[in-house]
Design a protein that fits this description.
785 residues; two-stranded antiparallel ribbon; 15 strands
Length: 785
Amino acid sequence: MRRLAVAVGVTAAVAGLATGLLLYRGCDASCRSTATAAEPDAELAAHAGSGYLASQRAGAEAADPAAAEQWARDRADYAAYQPVRLAELAAHPYLAAPSRAGWSDAERLGWDNWVHWTGGTQYLWRDFAQRSEGRIELLKVLDNRRLDRDERFSRFGLINDPAAAPPERGENGDCALDEHGLCLDAVADPGVSPETERWLGRPSGILGLRLFDNPEFEAGTSWNAEDPWSLPAGCEPGKRTPRELTGPGLDPSITAAESRDDCYQPPYLVGLTCGFCHVSFDPENPPPDPNAPTWDHLVAGLGNVYFQEGPLFSFVLDFGEDAFYTDYLLAQPPGTSDTSRLATDDLDNPNVMNMLVNVGARLAEARTERLGDGDEAPVPHILKDGADSAGLPLAALRVYVNIGMLGNYWLNQHDSYLLLGGEPTPQRPFRISTAMRTADYGGDFAWNQTELRVHDIAEWFGTLKPFELAAAPGGTAYLSDDAALLERGKTVFAEHCAACHSSKRPAYPRREDPERWVAEMTEMVLADDFLDGNFLSDDRRYTANAIGVNLARSMATNAVAGHVWNDFSSLTYKNLPSLGPLTFDDPFRAEREVDFCPPAGGRGYYRTASLVSLWATAPFFHNNLVGRHRQDPSVAGRMAAFDDAAEQLLWPERRTTPDGTVGPYVKRTGNHVTWLEMPSGLMVPIPERYPIKALGNLPLHDLVDRLPAGLAAALSDGSNESRQKRKERIVRKVLGNDLLRNQLRRLLIDLNASPDFVENRGHERQVAALDDDDKKALIEFMKRF
């Protein structure tokens, strides 16, 4: 995924100059090679035999005996915290509902941790705000003068916290500002005591964002209450080095005293929880008003299919209308998250949030893989590409790290994007055993505290059940009572879909006896209990070209050997072979193709997506781009999205772009030249309607150094004339010069990590054998998933 800052711009912008070029990349015999063999970690192998996470814990304690003492203290802290928090949760309106009456203490704490626990992410987001000179500041999203609470859902899919209310307003309608010049939601009952607020913060007004008092705030010196979004006088936080604490794995030459003087200190810190992306409206009980949900209208395991992450970041960063970053972010599909913006994998690959239902069936489908300590164990594949293959607890822990936990260690393991003052450097693994013995910005051992909580989260996962259309208000009106139609749909599913999309199937491979297998599968599907506990996936990895979907997500590199999530993926994953030569449509010239050789080592594979509650989660595929999005959580809105997506899935010739134009969809910039302005002073113009993936799938490293001299000179144009005249001159020099564009051709071909531009493709071969009646019958069955 691409970073939101200048580093994104460097790679993307330079590629933008190659408009109209024929892309070509030859493949040789090595294209089908396997990865360099990944072997067990020697330190972990010494502790193998008790489970992969336990091996990591033993490795941490062997490296530093004090780690065992710290782990004991953290366990004691959580043991003391649990009864206090459970007493508070006894009054929580969500947990007081009859359907949750039978939940265990662990399940109640698991839900609470998923929705309210930040894991210390608030410190990383303060770091972002400081290093971006206040630009990446989540307080902007919470201030009703910047974003009114009645616009949060319609504009960005954000969900108002039922614990909060509109801010107080005067007779003229103006917001009553707090002492820091902010217009925040009113919270009468924060639901926390001083003892638990230290860990959980308090409601901010938006679910998934928690508010903490900033212990380093100094009124009048670190914050400007008269103009909250300007820096205090003399403060230049973006010019300082990253804040680093001493400790295992960190730079020992940097002491706390030598860390930068953090002059920008807002009054509040804002931390992220898993609920920010995963809490959504209950399909079986949607809110009458999306701006005013109660807890009865919310669920935490579905995934927010309405979240508009790209537009939200565009709003926060405010690059300007003619910036490439703006068009890049606005093109991100709703309901997706680009989980590798940081650490970047130099790919534009946003993907839908995982729905967490029928987890027991998912675990039962887990495949045995060889882990980093050499042991073999069954592990589920959580990510769409199946990269996080080291067990459910570590998959959850990686999410917390990815949203900011232990950022003082994590940011030093990869190239922090340049907007934050980072230097482009190769990724280094985030070592789990190091994280276990490293304090975060605030002095807490956030990894330990979160590891203790994910066991309760896993217990809560077991409570999550599918959402049924028949149980939604008015849902039965969308279901046919034609028994013959439904039976035919089930038969079509058994014959054409169930081999991958069912966790209930015959105990032998279909290839051994296809006719017998289909007969037995059909009998299973026709049974009344077929959908009960069915994960509707086999949890296997398949090659991206076999599925036919856009390649980009499968090309993610963060979990390959030696990269940042090295410790979170299995040796089995790291040793996967290359897919072999692939070809894709040229986005610039019709009837021409791009040749591509995917590297080995884990890239190029997708796990089978679950189809559970498909009616409630349209559009389809990992990128949410088969079917048109509707920002409407009502049953009618969900079914309109489902009907459109199902039709486009099964009749590929009817697929459309997000604006409804029939045909292949290639994400492009707008009808105007956009600009990348790089720290080096280069200003790069990008032609209108430029394919975003041609820019977004390019790595930063070494790109600028490899620019031809003539092109670099044209882009650097150091004239002191007005900014607008300089832009006009660069456009004439660069976009009007075929030679300069052609110099980039081979460079851009070689660097593009996934030259696959069509977003709304996939499963064309799988549906080709179905006639129209089969497809209509299959849709009827799909409504019941």
